[in-house]
């Protein structure tokens, strides 16, 4: 089922999320719904807060980017209770967008390489070293689980330049082709 994506201004996007275990109700269906929602919006990552759930769960499929980012080949994952345990000191700046911020794209600096620990959809522990754009996707989505947003990583001047777009997103006046749940539809 395609779920509405919560947009900037929704309180759930700023909440600290809770870990889950295998007893979480209808988890496999939720994972399937998150992938379907993400694909419908042409996304490459989706965190549970973006569908209104304050839990540590995210889905990723970077394979559509493989032509430009070889590290995204076969990069489809479910990450439950992920934790970035190591970041390289080298930083890379690249333009990002976010399904919760339709029409907003900004350059964000992130670690070039990371090591992440998580449980997969079968609740098996995984520890994985990632680099390049795959690392960026995981970093971006893990921020959602900490109540942080990609615009927190841009300068105050860039935020000010995006103020009208951000206000329109809050008001439900953002233009996008997927279902959204804005904070204040007016």
UniProtKB/TrEMBL annotation:
<dbReference type="InterPro" id="IPR023635">
    <property type="entry name" value="Peptide_deformylase"/>
</dbReference>
<feature type="active site">
    <location>
        <position position="141"/>
    </location>
</feature>
<feature type="binding site">
    <location>
        <position position="98"/>
    </location>
    <ligand>
        <name>Fe cation</name>
    </ligand>
</feature>
<keyword id="KW-0408">Iron</keyword>
<comment type="similarity">
    <text>Belongs to the polypeptide deformylase family.</text>
</comment>
<feature type="binding site">
    <location>
        <position position="140"/>
    </location>
    <ligand>
        <name>Fe cation</name>
    </ligand>
</feature>
<dbReference type="GO" id="GO:0042586">
    <property type="term" value="F:peptide deformylase activity"/>
</dbReference>
<dbReference type="Pfam" id="PF01327">
    <property type="entry name" value="Pep_deformylase"/>
</dbReference>
<keyword id="KW-0378">Hydrolase</keyword>
<protein>
    <recommendedName>
        <fullName>Peptide deformylase</fullName>
        <ecNumber>3.5.1.88</ecNumber>
    </recommendedName>
</protein>
<dbReference type="GO" id="GO:0006412">
    <property type="term" value="P:translation"/>
</dbReference>
<dbReference type="GO" id="GO:0046872">
    <property type="term" value="F:metal ion binding"/>
</dbReference>
<feature type="binding site">
    <location>
        <position position="144"/>
    </location>
    <ligand>
        <name>Fe cation</name>
    </ligand>
</feature>
<keyword id="KW-0648">Protein biosynthesis</keyword>
<dbReference type="InterPro" id="IPR036821">
    <property type="entry name" value="Peptide_deformylase_sf"/>
</dbReference>
<keyword id="KW-0479">Metal-binding</keyword>
<comment type="function">
    <text>Removes the formyl group from the N-terminal Met of newly synthesized proteins. Requires at least a dipeptide for an efficient rate of reaction. N-terminal L-methionine is a prerequisite for activity but the enzyme has broad specificity at other positions.</text>
</comment>
